Amino acid sequence: MNDIRTNRFIKEVLDSTNKLVNIDINDVRDLFQEDEEIHAFDVSVPADKENRMMLLVEQIKKCSKCHEQDNRILVFFFFPEKQPLLMEELQPFSDWIESVPGDFLIKWGMATQSTQKIRAIVLLQ
């Protein structure tokens, strides 16, 4: 059974506008098993921080540590339009994905949002 926070995060990802890499309801259905719990968390760092993606990925790793057995991952990034998340900044995220042990399925997306932070919603199952 998923909690209200998890459902709120899924809704926020699905309802987000200004998507550059889309996640839709079919992605969520394909990724997660209905009868299993989804573990969800939300992390962020100031958008003007140096090494912001490295710091964000460190938070993701810390929060996902206790869910290492999960093999289905959804990550959705939000960032301010005036401080876009650049593709070359995704290297720490790519390195983390490569370090996850075992076989897993991952879907990720990104969108601009009126925020002063780089933010990630992470769902694990």
Structural summary, described in words:
The chain has 125 residues and is α+β, with helices and mostly antiparallel strands. 33% of the residues lie in helices and 28% in strands. The chain has a 5-stranded mixed beta sheet with strand order 1-4-3-5-2, with helices on both faces. The longest helix is centred in the middle third of the chain and has 13 residues, at 52-64.
How would you summarize the topology of this molecule?
Elements: H1 4-15, E1 19-21, H2 25-31, E2 39-46, H3 52-64, E3 72-79, H4 91-99, E4 105-112, E5 117-124
Parallel strand pairs: 3-4
Antiparallel strand pairs: 1-4, 2-5, 3-5
Helix pairs in contact: 3-4
Globular, elongated, flat, extended or rod-shaped: what is the shape?
Answer: globular
Strand line-up across the major sheet: 1-4-3-5-2
* Helix fraction by DSSP (H/I, runs of at least 4): 25-40%
Q: Secondary-structure element sequence?
A: HEHEHEHEE
Distance between the termini: 12 Å
How many whole angstroms does the radius of gyration measure? Answer: 14 Å
Percent strand: 25-35%
Q: Biggest sheet: strands, sense, closure?
A: 5 strands, mixed
The gist of it:
The chain has 125 residues and is an alpha+beta fold. It contains four helices and five strands.
Features:
alpha+beta; 125 residues; 33% helix
